[in-house]
Specification:
GO terms for molecular function: chloride channel activity. With 650 residues, the protein is mostly helical. It contains 19 helices and four strands.
Length: 650
């Protein structure tokens, strides 16, 4: 019987940089020693292995298959462990007949992956990527079942209004992926209620309705608590309730006293506060430049000055977030968490906290600074920053110096005409400056966040990988190609009709059979190399996108009640685009046992609490009275929607 490939270990034999001859010899010696030790450890663990050359220079692919006897032993050991830790399980003394009751693909891959990567103390082989003993093992991955992926995507596209069976997802990808799609489906269904309410209140009620805000807050609380119950129901039904009690320790874990661990966790707080302050100052500066300065400037190139804030945001904010993420990863590793779940939870809290500042600070500044105090801020900016033509000239000079000569000449021509007319670079009339304030800024921002940004995110997830793949194909000399791993084939974990054959060391075959298998093996290895080149799947990105969207709906949709409708439409597509992304653009997720969505539930709870504050503030500041126009505190900005509806009441 042809063995199936359960795991692929990616081994790096060379560092990918130029080495001197002595360094190259020493590197080759160390690589050979570790590679030989890797094969010995896997073989001594009763696994069958074979090494193949990878696509990149110095890359080796170690294909691993778990025989049935070893798999039975792993199943039996997990039964004992579950029984001792109080998890629901069948008779631990019985032996499971895998031929009559086969494991699901996710169970098989999870058991083998856990066996290979867990520590010796937990009964594993200790081959953990990134650990001190295996610094040349880059990663461990599993291969896609393309027959299932094709059927999965087809099921999403044919069921226009329904949802795919999540048990199939769990059997193929494990508990964590199934739990995410359950959460996304559950959240999407609950958006139907608040979307219907948003449409009604948008067309038949004055803006910033107290009733809508109250209904929105009740919806948020109901959703979070209902999901808490639903999550518990799923974990009980799947038999994973309390699975954290049997979680294996991380290979990088070093036992420490409790107070040292707590101090290390607290040490990350100053780093977070520093980057949060830098980001807040940067975003506030971009906000002032975009909302006030750009409208005051009337000099050469004023048509293009509006793009400045966007360019600054795109150039600086991702860099700050990227640098902070490097520190967050280092600090989380230094915190020395014993289990992968707590490690991931700590990193999630660190990274999402700063991402939330980027997501919500801009609209908060507009709601609580721009609209209520826009005139005052405009006057301050107008007087203190750009008072007089000389200051404007000194400020604009360095900016024009970096522009192309032909553009600068065109700007100077415009500038000459304006100077001849005794005009300055900046708007000096305070009345005219106030008239440039945008009364619909909040609504425009909500549209951008809930429509434009989500369309862009969908393109980045689905369309951009095709573009990058085509660019890499052209650069490598293969011509323009958008190809992905071929559908309709499968590895040993699915039910596809066509199996690819890999010859392991303990197999014998005559020359004719071996020659017949060579072509099939080459095709299989081509598919393996394509999947190895794919990035690893990161579930943080998908959860972060949905939780951020929930924050917009619960905290800010009183500004634009159609935001839930836009989110509902996006999520209907998101269910399908996420499935497509997992099946085509990333490596197959490694199955894990879990009974919760982790820190995301606490984040949803915090956003619900924050929604109570923001909705109260928005209603207090902007709700129109019975017989008065909507005049926000401290400004003459009016709301066209409010004027239409209040006049209807009178």
């Amino acid at each position: 019987m042809t063995p199936h490939v359960d795991l692929v270990l990616i081994f790096r034999s060379s560092p990918g940089k130029v080495l001197s001859k002595p360094q190259a010899r020493e590197n080759a010696r160390q690589a050979t020693q570790q590679y030989t030790r890797l094969l010995d450890v896997l073989k001594n663990g009763r696994l069958r292995v074979v090494g193949k050359r990878g696509e990149q220079e110095g890359q080796l692919l170690v294909l691993v298959h778990c025989p049935e006897q070893t798999l039975k032993r792993l199943v039996q050991r997990e039964r004992y462990s579950d029984f001792l830790c109080g998890l629901p399980t069948v008779d631990p003394t019985g032996t499971r007949d895998l031929s009559a009751e086969p494991l699901s693909p996710a169970e098989r891959l999870r058991l083998v992956h856990s066996y290979v990567t867990s520590t010796h103390a937990d009964g594993g082989l200790g081959v953990a990527p990134g650990s001190f003993d295996w610094d040349r093992v880059e990663s461990v991955m599993v291969l896609h079942d393309h027959a299932f992926n094709e059927a999965w995507i087809r099921a999403w596209t044919t069921r226009q209004l329904g949802f795919v069976k999540f048990d199939d997802i769990r059997q193929q990808f494990g508990d964590s992926i199934a739990l995410y799609f359950n959460f996304l489906s559950f959240y999407t269904k609950h958006l139907i209620f608040i979307s219907a309410a948003g449409v009604l209140f948008y067309f038949f009620s004055p803006p910033y309705s107290t009733l809508y805000s109250s209904f929105l807050l009740l919806w948020s609380i109901t959703f979070v608590e209902w999901w808490r119950i639903r999550q518990r129901q799923l974990s009980v039904g799947w038999g994973t309730k309390g699975s954290f009690r049997v979680e294996k320790r991380r290979a990088q874990y070093v036992p420490l006293s409790w107070w040292r661990k707590d101090l290390r966790v607290l040490a990350s707080l100053p780093v977070f506060l520093f980057f949060a302050s830098v980001l807040a100052v940067l975003l506030t500066g971009i906000f002032v430049l975009e909302a006030f300065v750009a409208h005051l400037y009337t000099g050469p190139g004023h048509q293009l000055i509006g793009f400045g804030p966007t360019i600054l945001f795109a150039a600086l904010v991702p860099q700050v977030l990227g640098i902070y993420r490097l520190y967050a990863v280092s600090l989380t590793n230094w915190e020395n968490h014993g289990h992968q779940s707590t490690h991931d939870a700590s990193l999630t809290v660190k990274v999402f906290s700063l991402s939330a500042i980027v997501a919500y600070l801009g609209i908060a500044l507009s709601a609580f600074v721009y609209v209520p105090f826009g005139e005052e801020v405009m006057s301050v900016v107008q007087y203190y920053l750009f008072h007089g033509h000389s200051a404007a000239t000194s400020w604009l000079g360095p900016l024009l110096s970096v522009l192309p000569a032909n553009v600068t000449a065109a700007f100077n021509a415009t500038s000459t005409a304006k100077v001849a007319g005794s005009k300055t670079f900046w708007e000096r009339d305070s009345v005219s400056a106030r008239s440039k304030l945008n009364p619909k800024r909040l609504q425009d921002q909500m549209f951008a966040f809930t429509v434009t940004n989500q369309v862009v995110n969908t393109f980045l997830e689905i369309g951009l990988p095709f573009v990058l793949r085509a660019v890499n194909s052209v650069r490598s000399g293969r011509g323009l190609s958008f190809s992905t791993p071929a559908a309709g084939t499968t590895n040993g974990n699915g039910n596809g009709a066509k199996k690819k054959r890999v010859m392991f060391e303990d197999q014998s075959a005559d020359s004719e059979a071996e020659q017949a298998a060579n072509q099939e093996e080459r095709e299989f290895m081509d598919r393996v190399k394509r999947e190895v080149a794919l990035p690893a799947y990161d579930i943080f990105t998908d959860y972060s996108e949905m939780v951020t969207q929930f924050g917009y709906v619960s905290c800010w949709s009183a500004i634009w009640p159609l935001a839930p409708v836009m989110s509902l439409m996006n999520n209907w597509l998101e269910l399908r685009s996420d499935a497509f992304k997992i099946a085509v653009h990333v490596r197959r997720p490694i199955p894990t046992r879990t009974d919760t969505i982790g820190p995301w539930l606490d984040t949803l709870q915090f956003l619900t609490w924050l929604a109570a504050l923001t909705n109260s503030a928005l209603v207090f500041l902007f709700r129109p009275g019975k017989n008065e126009q909507c005049r926000p505190v401290g400004t003459s900005l009016s709301h066209p929607h409010a004027q239409r509806d209040t006049s209807r009441e009178g």
